[in-house]
Each structure stands twice: as structure tokens, then as C-alpha cells.
Amino acid sequence: MSPDGECDESPESERIPDRNRMTRLRRNLSRWYAAHGRELPWRATHDPYRIWISEIMLQQTTVAAVIPYFERFLEQFPTVEVLAAADENEVLRMWEGLGYYSRARNIHRTARQLVAERKGTFPHDAVELQQLPGIGRYTAGAIASFAFDERAPIVEANTLRLYSRLLGYDGDPRSSEGQKLLWRFAEAVLPKANPGRFNQALMELGSTVCTPAAPDCPSCPLRTVCRAFAENRQEEIPRPKPRPKITPVVEASIAVRRGDTYLLRQRRAEERWAGLWDFPRFELGEDQPGHLDRSDEALVPVLHQNLQGPLKELTGIAAEVTAVVTELRHSVTRYRIRLICLEAEYRSGDPTNGDETQQWCRPEDFEELAFSVTGRKLARLLVRRENSGS
Ligand code: SF4
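Predict the joint structure of the above. Result:
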């Protein structure tokens, strides 16, 4: 029998603590959180808008990195109505550098939907919240419980690790069996009173004490109910994710100059960083003869020749590559990218194609547009060079 009286016959359900252990767990955690919970900008509120923005930003991103973005974003878009009325470029500009830009586009779409269909209010119910773009089961549970004190469970990266250890679950926590067990526990552990605060306490313990490496078990308030600790297996649980194989890639980005402007293009819906502005960028496939390791001087004629066709196809113009401006190294998911940034002089062709997704832009206007991180680095380098007159 499960703690709430429902019949669950799966062997894994036996891992869920009995009523007495559950009571101890709740009491110890609540006391610990009252004494040790951090004050974070999105905690001292029940405003679903602020909670929603913080939760989306915190996906795949650390608290320290999110705080300045959160504050700037809320200053620019203080309400869901202001966000809905904004232009997508403005939203992406405020998100620039946080990565995973589909999060920003979904936030914008959702704000528009909430204003158009619900006068800017949020559903209270986690199932209804999940119907909105970009809101999954975890985010829905966080909004429903933190903002409305609904008894909605949560499982995210920190609680996934914490629950796996508390239950001593050494299977794959991302498998369907693992997910079923963890969500089942997340539901069972929630108290009737203040479930939102309790969910925050679980996340806090996971992120500050039950850390991925070297969890601080001696100061953990839950060590007396933790199976992994009892079995001294806290370093083995949860089972690590298989590491993706890293693939090296070489790309080129071309700053094509015409007078005092450069050609920029807005990346298409099907491209990485959709909606962001960028200099024309190309992957240099393995068919490039192995001369990409040459000096800058020797690279210029090679890349000029190899990129004429792709540049024409992508932008409709021809240009002469004149110099390597810089090289940047960065990673995107499992790709480790070496980006060769080139400068070129415009020769012929019309890139505008009747739409506004390709534009000649003066360096002093770059700051108004949302760029990818490497696009911004190149843009700022060109501006600095322009200002220094070199
Ligand atoms: Fe995590 Fe250790 Fe606490 Fe168990 S005792 S929940 S492993 S910090």
C-alpha cells in the first residue's frame, strides 16, 4: 500500500518511505529550510509571472548566472502585458548570452497567448499550465505550487538527484521506470500545508547540500531517512548520464563590408539560434582539404575560393574575402566549434530579397540587435576596431 492508501504493486514503490519516515523527513526538511534557505529574487513572491520567468531561465542554467538576467528582464518587462507587447528581437536581446533561445521565444508566445486568451492571468492548475508553450511538467508544478500553493509535485535536476539518493534508487532516473518512481515520491512527500514552500526546500537541499559531487551528508537534515547514505552509496547514485561523444567542427563567419555597413542576417526558424542576428556563417565540411591549419595569410585565398558558392547561395551576394579577423572557440551541445571570423569586401548582388531578414547595418546599431554569443564577440571586435580607426 502506498503512503496515501492507493494500491501500487510495483517492487520499486516499496522504496517510498512509510508514514513515520515521511513525517520525519518533512519536519526535518522544513526546519532546515527555515534556517538555511537562501533569499533569491524570485522566492519572496507569489507572483506567477516572476516565478515563471525565473523557472524558465533556471532550466540548464545556474542560479548565479540567472540572477542578473532575471533582474534586467523584469526591469524591461515588468508584467506579462508589457512582455506580450514587446518585439521578439527585444526579448531575444534581453536573453542574449543565456543560450537555449527557444526558451525566450516560447516565453514570448506564451505571454501573448495569456494576454489574448486570459487577460494576462495564469491558470492555477498544473495540468492546464502544461498546455502553454514551453511549460513542461516540472515548470507547471513549480508555478502551481510556488504561486498558488497547489499540491503539485516537482522533479527537476536537483530533486531528481535528491530523490534518487533518498530512495536508494540505482536504476536510470531518466528511464520511464525511474521517472514513474520519482514523480510518485514527489507527490507522496508533499505536505498538505505550504506545498510550495516545501517544494522550494527540496530544491534548495538538492542544490546546496545533496550536490552532484561530494554531497555534504554530515550536515544533511535527511541523513536518517536517506537510503543511499545508509548504504554509503551517495557517490554512485544517481547513475550518471552517458557522456555524449564530442565532435569537432570548423565554421567560418564572414563580416561582409559595404561602405560603412556590414551585412547581417536573421537566422531562420530551422537554424540554430533562430531569430538571432548573425554574420553569414558556414560549416566547413570535411571535404575542405586539410589546409585549415595554415596561417591566417594562407587561409584567406583558400576560404575565399571555398566560400564564394555558399555565400551566394545563402545571401545572394558576391564578396572578396580579405582577412582573418579572429578565431573563436566555443561549444554547442556536443559540438566543439572552431570559428574562423573573416572580413570581406562586397562586390555584387542584392541581399535584401524583399524581406527584412538580411540588412546592411552600421556598427553603431549592432547593440540594438540580439546576436549569438560569438556573433556579438565579432560585432564588438569590429566596433572596437572602427573606433580605434584601424
Ligand atoms: Fe543527499 Fe547525503 Fe542528504 Fe542523502 S544524506 S540526501 S545523499 S546529502
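Residues 296-315 form the longest helix (20 residues).
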